Amino acid sequence: MNQRDIPEKTKQIQLMAQIYSKAARVIVWLGEAEDSGDQALEQLRQLCIR
């Protein structure tokens, strides 16, 4: 979620309860975006589906 994009943030926040209530597992990246952040999250996702 882009914290600086207020319309996007508002839309996403409204969906959070529904999304998280249906999730079997949640992975959250807390902190600043890094050059390889997307790759790191994809690797975590791959580990979780095994």
UniProtKB/TrEMBL annotation:
A Pfam family this chain is assigned to: HET
Protein name: Heterokaryon incompatibility domain-containing protein
Residue stretches making up the Heterokaryon incompatibility domain: 2-47
Species for this entry: Podospora pseudocomata
Signal peptide annotation: none
InterPro entries: HET, HetReg/Transcr_Mod
